[in-house]
Amino acid sequence: MQALGQLHEADGAVGAGDAELAVLELNISGGGFHQVGGHLLGLVDDAVGGAPQRLAVYWLADYAGGIFIPFRDATSGDESYGAGRYLWDSAKGADLGSEADLLTLDFNYAYHPSCVQDPRWSCPLAPQENWLPVPVRAGERLPEGHR
Question: Global pTM?
Answer without folding.
Answer: 0.81
